[in-house]
Amino acid sequence: MILLRDLHFSRNGETLVGGASLQLHPGWKVGLTGANGSGKSSFLALLRGELHADRGDLEMPPGWVQAHVAQDTPALPDAAIEFVLDGDTELRRIERELAEAEASHDATPDSHHAGDRIGLLHGRLSEIEGYAAPARAAALMHGLGFVDADFRRPVAEFSGGWRVRLNLARALMCRSDLLLLDEPTNHLDLDAILWLEGWLKAYRGTLLLISHDRDFLDAVCSHVLAIENRRLQLFTGNYSACERTRAERLANDLALAEKQRREAAHLQSYIDRFRAKATKARQAQSRIKMLARMGEIAAAHVDAPFSFRFPEPAAFSDPLLLLEKASAGYDERPLLGDVTLTLRPGSRIGLLGRNGAGKSTLMKLLAGQLQPLAGQRDEGRNLRLGYFAQHQLEQLRPAESPLWHMVKLEPATREQELRNWLGGFDFRGSMAEAPCGRFSGGEKTRLALALMIRGAPNLLLLDEPTNHLDLEMREALTIALQETEAGMVLVSHDRHLLRATCDELWLVDGGRVAPFDGDLDDYAEWLARSRAAEKPAAVKPARQAQAAAGAAPKPAPARRTLAKEIERLERQLAGWQEELGEVETRLADPALYAGDDAHRVDQLTQRQALLTQNIEAAETRWLEIHEQLEQEH
Hints:
With 633 residues, this protein is of the alpha/beta class. Helix content is 48%, strand content 18%.
């Protein structure tokens, strides 16, 4: 286990945590939460041995293998799949030793010692399933959004976001006892997040995870370790359970309890208005369920430093914006075609689609940053756009302060009013006058949102607005978006934000944009079906993955070792096939879908996919061994 005794640690002379004493047991999946700058990443650095405690003890089992995602990736010439395979350090060590032993054996044919060494190494390679390692690496890369054509591409050719994915795949490739992940979903789309969620749930080691995605924390974590007021507090259960406990504790403070009551009454009036006009559409009903939980969620965040509302727009047009049979793309080549979309006041649309399908392209078309290649884009007379995308952060002046940016935006407004507005985004006192070049990604995102919202737009185009935002700011943004009358189109991998703010979901797929008839649970099933349909009908041999990686065929191990591997594979296959039969029987039971336990359906579907993948890989290896034995015979 991981044991903390009266642990104190700091960074740059600032105390982050003091007097922490607790135990984290093997196999726990622990979500690490806290405000930006509270010490979450420093705690992971402490576990990695990159930071030393000021006082107290931190003990871990000495033999544990750790894995974490590197912050930087050099512009390497290595093939991407080889870079991922390097994550399994024992595999690479055995491969090197095998090459040396075989070279020695070839040089001295009478050497029995080299032959014995080769047999032992092949035996260990079999034990760690090293022959299937290229197929395992390929599965990790597929899950994170890479295609087969990417496997041989040099690492240097990938953009920063895709290199982050390669680093993540490399960390998952390591057969670790302790996995440390710091915001792993930041550069992933929803497809990859859902895949990673399933992978982490099946992970057998101990996990420490920093994330500001509440749905991800709820799905993966068995415990939450919260850093608050320089203390570490351990909660049993997922993030929602932690929130309920926190809300109860805050209710004991009379001032905060009164604020809880006011916030709950305010939210309830909004929920009642929405319920009165909601349709029976699946997504609207899903949102009603989400809103029913917002009261208890808000109660857990009443002490948040963020408090703002969208200024109500001065005027509206109906429609605000119209696309009619529009196509959009780059270099005269359309990525999207025949798009017809009408945005009205009160429209609340969430865009879904796989990575590269064209969601951001559609947002640029709506924002007027891309002109249609064909068709029409018509703006309403009173349209006032508020467009947020990641490039907005690059437009901030690094040498200037948040207050300078606000004065530039509204030179005639009193400074105190501008300071009050910035205070709602937690830019208070000297922070309002500090150069924003030294801000973190989350602070820059908050400033860009503060500037955009201040203009009182009547149509909001938000492309991943929650990247780098902590949980408290995400909740403040969620509530503000719920209450504004402005129209909205949202691209986000934050499922909680989508559920709480969107009445309609539209799917971008295959160059088309169309309403999606379902909710986010239905979308997860659609993604699973799409992934399954992409698999070829024939079983993918492991040797194809090796060929894609450019790996040389492995030398044949001794017949006795192969026979033992066959026995092990047959035992595994029998267990997996029996479990798969049980899972499929449960999925075929109509009673499973009659209730509201969509989470259980999701668990069973993901387990079905994992078992199918394991069976395919094991059957492929079983056939390979038999072919090899027949050839030798």
